[in-house]
């Protein structure tokens, strides 16, 4: 049974407003960075509304969304093609055409996808629109313009060019342990480093460290093997749980940190006031009593 959440509103509601003209992936307009589970929901959305339809036009409302790529390249690889598969790697959505090229979405902050029948129904901050042969549209909404759309020859090429680490849902325990053992930085920073492990950001690194009792500033290479294994299992379990509920945080347990992230909140486990600190350029939430 779904539990109403009074403390935190999930950024993503994977519920569609279905009428004759528009389907929307609803999103509460707050500042957040889509992480692996959110991008997984976008992948499902893309598969539902964009696969196996011929691209007949692409309109770009703001050239900054394709910075470094150029319209000609996007048209060359996408026009009159179909997307036959949608994959996720880390925080990226890779939409493959039948010839193997990929249109890559990075959602930045506040990015999401919207399917519609009429362009007038797309949100005001839609930056990039794919027009399909069946008169449907897929819009990439990105209010803050930190997101990007680009083209690559294949998923493997993209991963190589971006120097991404193994995906957080596919990384092995040995790879995970090696990453941590070779890193003298703060464990939170290491978890968020996409070149080491791809897909984890601020929210899920905080959650995993909270649930394992590890202080976010602890040196990654000082964790013993049992802590590393516990963290590995916890990261993957939390990501899996979030994917299963389409990144709707209100569907996650009330004692998860993600449902208690505000400056006046107390630790859901011990009642101590939660702390914040800047770690790896992001605001970490943690309990100084439960995490050491
Ligand atoms: Zn606590």
From TrEMBL:
FPG-type domain: residues covered: 257-292
Keywords: DNA damage, DNA repair, DNA-binding, Glycosidase, Hydrolase, Lyase, Metal-binding, Multifunctional enzyme, Zinc, Zinc-finger
GO BP, sorted A to Z: base-excision repair
GO molecular function: class I DNA-(apurinic or apyrimidinic site) endonuclease activity; damaged DNA binding; oxidized purine nucleobase lesion DNA N-glycosylase activity; zinc ion binding
Gene3D superfamilies noted in UniProt: 1.10.8.50, MutM-like, N-terminal
Reaction(s) the record says it catalyses: Hydrolysis of DNA containing ring-opened 7-methylguanine residues, releasing 2,6-diamino-4-hydroxy-5-(N-methyl)formamidopyrimidine; 2'-deoxyribonucleotide-(2'-deoxyribose 5'-phosphate)-2'-deoxyribonucleotide-DNA = a 3'-end 2'-deoxyribonucleotide-(2,3-dehydro-2,3-deoxyribose 5'-phosphate)-DNA + a 5'-end 5'-phospho-2'-deoxyribonucleoside-DNA + H(+)
Cofactor(s) listed: Zn(2+)
Pfam families: Fapy_DNA_glyco, H2TH, zf-FPG_IleRS
Residue ranges of domain Formamidopyrimidine-DNA glycosylase catalytic in the record: 34-147
SUPFAM superfamilies for this protein: Glucocorticoid receptor-like (DNA-binding domain), N-terminal domain of MutM-like DNA repair proteins, S13-like H2TH domain
InterPro entries reported for this sequence: DNA_glyclase_Znf_dom_DNA_BS, FPG_cat, FPG_N, H2TH_FPG, Ribosomal_uS13-like_H2TH, Znf_DNA_glyclase/AP_lyase, Znf_FPG/IleRS
Similarity field: Belongs to the FPG family.
Entry-linked PANTHER family: FORMAMIDOPYRIMIDINE-DNA GLYCOSYLASE
Designated name of the protein: Uncharacterized protein
Taxonomic source organism: Candidatus Auribacter fodinae
């Amino acid at each position: 049974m779904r539990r109403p959440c009074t403390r935190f509103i999930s950024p993503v509601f994977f519920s569609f407003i279905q009428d004759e003209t528009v389907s929307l992936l609803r999103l509460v307009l707050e500042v957040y960075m889509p992480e692996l589970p959110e991008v997984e929901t976008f992948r499902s959305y893309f598969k539902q509304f964009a696969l196996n339809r011929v691209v007949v036009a692409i309109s770009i409302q703001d050239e900054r969304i394709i910075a470094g790529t150029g319209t000609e390249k996007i048209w060359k690889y996408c026009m009159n093609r179909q997307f036959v598969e949608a994959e996720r790697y880390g925080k990226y959505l890779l939409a493959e055409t039948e010839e193997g090229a990929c249109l890559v979405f990075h959602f930045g902050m506040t990015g999401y996808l919207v399917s519609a029948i009429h362009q007038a129904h797309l949100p005001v901050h839609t930056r990039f629109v794919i027009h399909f042969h069946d008169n449907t549209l897929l819009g990439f909404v990105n209010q803050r313009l930190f997101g990007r759309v680009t083209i690559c020859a294949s998923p493997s090429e993209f991963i190589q060019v971006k120097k991404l680490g193994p995906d957080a849902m596919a990384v092995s325990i040995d790879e995970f342990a090696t990453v941590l053992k070779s890193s003298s930085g703060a464990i939170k920073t290491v978890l968020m480093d996409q070149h080491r492990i791809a897909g984890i950001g601020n929210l899920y690194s905080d959650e995993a460290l909270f649930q394992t009792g590890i202080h976010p500033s602890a040196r990654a290479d000082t964790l013993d093997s049992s802590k590393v294994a516990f963290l590995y299992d916890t990261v993957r379990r939390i990501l899996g749980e979030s994917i299963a509920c389409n990144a709707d945080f209100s569907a996650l347990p009330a004692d998860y940190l993600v449902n208690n992230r505000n400056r006046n909140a107390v630790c859901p486990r011990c009642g101590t006031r939660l702390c914040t600190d800047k770690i790896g350029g992001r605001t970490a939430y943690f309990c100084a009593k439960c995490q050491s």
